Amino acid sequence: MVEGFRGIRAVAWLCAAVMSIAACDTLERTPPPQATAPEAAEPAAPVDAAGQLAAELSRAGGPIMLAGHGGGMPYTPPNDVAPGTARVAVLLPLSGRLGELGTGMLEAAQIAVFDLAGSEFELMVFDTEGSPESASEAARQAVDQGATLILGPLLAASTRAAAPWARAAGVPLISFSSDRRVAGDGVFVIGFTPDAEVERVVQHAASRGITRFAAMAPDTPYGAVVTEALRRSVDSVGGTVTHVELVDPRIPDFPGALERLTGESEAGQTADPGAGASGTATVMVPDRSIAESPFGFQAMLVAEGGDRLRSLAATLPAYGIAGGVVRVLGTGTWDEPWIRDEQALHGGWFAAPDPHARSGFVQSYTLTYGKPPARLASLAFDAAALAAVLGRGLGGTTFTMEVLTVPSGFVGSEGVFRFRSGGVAERGLVVMEVTPFGTEIVSDAPESFIGI
Q1: pLDDT digit string (tens) for 214-229?
Q2: In sequence order, which ranges of 61-180 are alpha helices (DSSP H)?
Q3: Domain 194-352: top CATH class
Q4: Taking CA 380 as the corner, what is the angle to CA 378 and CA 385, rounded to the nearest 5 degrees?
Q5: Which of 57, 66, 153, 274 is most buried (CB neighbours < 10 A)?
Q6: Superfamily designation of domain 61-192+355-428
């Protein structure tokens, strides 16, 4: 029995071993589950933060507010991009004959930085000494020190000298000049351009029925810009420029120029008819009776300012250009408090930034420094405010062509403005009329560029 039991146990053990081996073989032959490799993620596209910012500014629906005392829409910087440092250089004549003006403009820029800049903003100051050579050296130093935007210089010649350094480094430059000829290829002009002032006042005059224009301007590059702007603007409204007199700036012969324009001598005698009028025109004068003009023009643009304007104004009545017979037009050089004292200019029109918009900046500057600002100080404030506000978003990477030329523009201390693609600032201007009590607005400035 024992042997039989041992035999049975051996057979059972053998069967179990075989079954175990078979089971193991089955397990070994079963293919392992296939692991699924994770799909490779698409490489993230580089973020064009400045492009996104420009798109957001465009969608804002209106100009961006640069100062608390102006209008416009508040700017909210993006919170998902590390801003970095906005290093902004300002180039101004802090010494030399323009030192007082340059210092006042720097003070205005510092108000903007103090009020509006974030912690990652650095204003670097350079003295151009009022010369192109020093402006060029200042621009070189600014670029070498890592400037991502240059504000200034003040003068056109200095801007031409500084621009090559900025362009070579790809750094935008916002000049305080009013000469549009220096703008373009990364250079912007924020100054008050006379051709824009001429265009605005001509449009207003045309809306009041004036179609024939004359001009008296200095025989200078400024005079050439003004008279060319007059011809272009008058042509755009379907009018005619009948007379243009360019006066020697060194020895201004206003009586001779007026005699050629009007055909009248100073004593009231008719001069050579070949040099004078070509007919009688009717001009509508608001709040006055219709006056008959014995000349071939209804309005005369006078592109003079300061003492030269005073001298010319004293001469106008002797040649019949007073009392509403001819509407006298001016440029921004008329924007002076004493203009009300020139009776011959009463009723005259000129285009300028809105004085109500400027009042907030004037008050802030006066409270800070105990004196009123120079007329051009607002340009430095607006340029620095633009840099400070935009710099809160993306630091130095903000100052791209796309952002600086956003169509909706900005609201600064002088009202709404924007840079066109050519680099020249377009501004919303009012039309002012000279009265015995000062000046008053007869045509409001636009509050935005929507539809323009």
Answers
A1: 999 999 999 999 999 9
A2: 99-116, 132-144, 156-169
A3: alpha beta
A4: 95
A5: 153
A6: Response regulator (3.40.50.2300)
